[in-house]
# Entry
Amino acid sequence: MAGPSTSGGVLESLSNDLAGAVERAGQSVVAIHARRRIPASGIHWRPGIIVAAHHTIQREEEITASLADGSTVAATLVGRDPTTDLAVLKVGEAKVPVASFAEDSGVRVGALVLALGRPGSAVTASLGVISTVGGEWRTWHGGSIDRFVRLDVSIYDGFSGGPLIDASGRVLGLNTSGLSRGAALAIPVPTVNRVVDQLVKSGRVSRGYLGLGMQAVRLPAALVERLAMPNDIGLMVVSAEPGGPADGAGILIGDVLIALGDKPVVDPGEVLSFLGGDQIGKTVTARIIRAGEPKTIPITIGERPQQSRGSRRGR
Amino acid sequence: MITEPLGRELAELASLLRRSTVEVRTRGTGAGSGIIWNDTGLIVTNAHVARSEHATIVLSDGRAFDGVVTAHDPRRDLATIAIDTSGASLPAATIGHPTDLRAGDVVVALGHPLGIAGALAFGVVHVVETRRGAPRWIRADIRLAPGNSGGPLADARGRVIGVNTLIAGGLGVAVPTTTVLRFLGDVETGRARSGYRAA
# Structure
């Protein structure tokens, strides 16, 4: 039809580059049928290994994956790590390429990125930028993630479990809205690799466990002085899992935890950091204040029970 | 630096599209947008924008015309409005090919979101939903608002590929121009309802 249009310039090149990146990277994006209604996205990460977001995998049996070539294959759940919101599935044969990964230096603020998904048969794309890059951080559930990567990208169906790609189609991370109150985050490639290694090896990512809920409280100055504490913060026990390691050792609600071993604790996150998988079975001396008096209680660190199903909301 | 020519091209694209985008005002409802489909005065918009027999069509240069709704298809959510230009030629849009669209392709929308005249929005194709191989809906990662309805969704060269129709789950949803062409064909052969019917 007649009428003017602009000549092909940088805008058209940009358009072609972005669509080309989506086409290439989309080859390794799969749809995972493991919940009602809309399928979730996953990435063909290594040959036969698919990585998805834990919270989108809502059943453990009869899981199938739809691949970019139009085929649908059976998938089995290898394991899941709710603390990093990652799940690993295995497929028998996948005649689609595995993802190609970008250098970690590509993760920087302002980088033009696309979030891909496959909440059905077709690949979907959203455009945005990386808005924050921070250091290592710990999720609400105690998982350790190498870098904090927040995105300015709209979240649509299929966002979680899909790849974050750069403008040339290489994967920078796995997207999820399940780790930070619905905010768009990406889990960097090294973190995903670490969790995949552990899940493939043992089917789970084990973590230490005390069975305590704690809240930071400020202690009276006189008490801090008397006990020669380095700071005036302690962690008050607000819940103790019945039969859990701390309960069994005699910790009571109302006790104030001030140190684990020699290390003072002023934040529940520090306790989570301390409870790595290598601590399971070891005994740690908990220094507490009970009724204004210091006390030491040895606790044998247990293993955190596995959360079996995706339950948190998110797309 | 690619940003300088990028900005310049986007500005050209905006002014190109703005010329062939009209404001459609009907009694009782808020204003929507429309596309100048040919230079003799055929305006294409959404059926939900053309909700009465008559509409006032306002061009980007401020000229206003009385329009008559000549075809109205609530199922496809498309309508045509004819205006009498008294022989004056109108800046018609260039129609593109939504069949070539891929996820990730740059798209822009022009319209009157929330009454703001001639506003440009930038985004990418999220997915082209097809039925029997033909595009059925273009879903775009683009920020639209009421008032964009009936306006153009265009590709990186300014060719109109869809009529912005609704917002679903945060995505802009456009009726592909292939559907518009089929609708116009049906109007010509009398298979589509002509004129306004209360829906």
